[in-house]
Amino acid sequence: MTVQTTPLKVGVAGVGVMGRNHARVLSDIRDVNLTAVFDPDAATAEGVAGLYEAAAFTTAGDFVAAGLDAAVVATPNRFHADLSVALLEKGVHVLVEKPIAATVADAQRMIDAAKANNRVLMVGQVERFNPAVDAVKRAIQGEEVISIQITRVGPFPPRMGEVGVVIDLAVHDIDIIRHLTDSEIVEVQPQLARTKAEREDTALLQFRLENGVIAHITTNWVTPYKTRTLQVATKGKFVVADLMTRQVTEYFGQQPDGSYSTRGVMSWPNEPLKKELEAFAHAIRTGETPAVTGEDGLRNLEVALRCLGEG
Fold first, then answer.
1. Rounded CA separation 77/57 (Å)
2. How far apart are CA 60 and CA 86, in angstroms?
């Protein structure tokens, strides 16, 4: 892969909530020029493009042909594969929002296109770049992990898409579990409920990993307020993180009388999306393997689909 030294010409495909965030952050990153915005809705495309002096496109074909070095694909899931493959075949590096695609076969197609065209394919698992997740990963380094528990709950989303909580929310946590353990999920025990949506809006997911760690995800759209917590139990300590406030605490040194010590773990105040996009640009410039690979995206999707009984 030739290493690029000039500013990267980057485009964003799909400028809903997430795509707008990508556009905002890209416009603020050194050596990156946001030059193209694609959305089938002309007013939306032109509105976002106008904010950043980028060109607006309303068809995928024109966007693919826009002479980009790299693109962020933040369209609805069902369009991820076709658009990403077209971009990769055109020689454009791709960061695709999670989940990587709608099906495992589509994910594999994207991975194959990236390899065939020697381009970077990275998956936007933004929680990997959450400083609190990073702090937990450091805190459990060298520890024997016993269990992981993640709670990701909140109110019903105003923009209910085509997916339920497993694909929309739990995919974040499946990735966190794989990232923290450096192991693959081998057993899934899902409990799903549908209360006010066409798809599941409540899920309790239990996993066993190859290395013996057990993990549990609680996720729903029926809690009136947002909670994002991560708890990791190891042989030597218990680590608790709030993924929204980024506060991380270690509990350790438990004594026979029940007393124990605590300490706060430093987590840096970085914007995760900026860290993610900088990591994408870094992979393009250096030819290094991206932080979250297409294979990671495929594994996360595979586990999520197994939870839905579709894997």
1. 19
2. 9
Q: How far is CA 22 from CA 33, 104, 141, 288, in A?
A: 12, 25, 31, 22
- How far apart, in whole angstroms, are the C-alpha atoms of residue 309 and residue 304? 9
C-beta of residue 68 within 8 angstroms of C-beta of residue 6? no
Question: What is the per-residue DSSP string for 218-274?
Answer: EEES--SS-EEEEEEEESSEEEEEETTT--EEEEE---TTS--EEEEE------HHH
3-state DSSP assignment of residue 107: helix
What is residue 4's predicted lDDT score, i.e. its pLDDT?
59
Bridge partners of 57? 38
Residue 145 main-chain phi, psi, to 5 deg: -75, 135
Decide: 135 and 267 in contact? Cβ < 8 Å.
yes
Write a three-state SS string for 174-227: HHHHHHHHCCCEEEEEEEEECCCCCCCCEEEEEEEECCCCEEEEEEECCCCCCE
Q: pLDDT by residue (tens digit) across 28-65?
A: 999 999 999 999 999 999 999 999 999 999 999 999 99
Angle of the 294-307 helix axis to the 104-116 helix axis, nearest 10: 170
pTM equals: 0.95
**For the chain, give me the number of helices (H) and strands (E)?**
10, 14
CB-CB contact of 24 with 48 (8 Å):
no
Of 308, 307, 294, 309, give the one whose Cα is nearest residue 124. 294
Structure tokens, 204: 């309790």
- Cα–Cα dist 308/287, whole Å: 36
Pairing of strands 248-252, 237-242: antiparallel
Model confidence at 272: pLDDT above 80:
yes
The structure tokens listed for 108 are: 């594999």
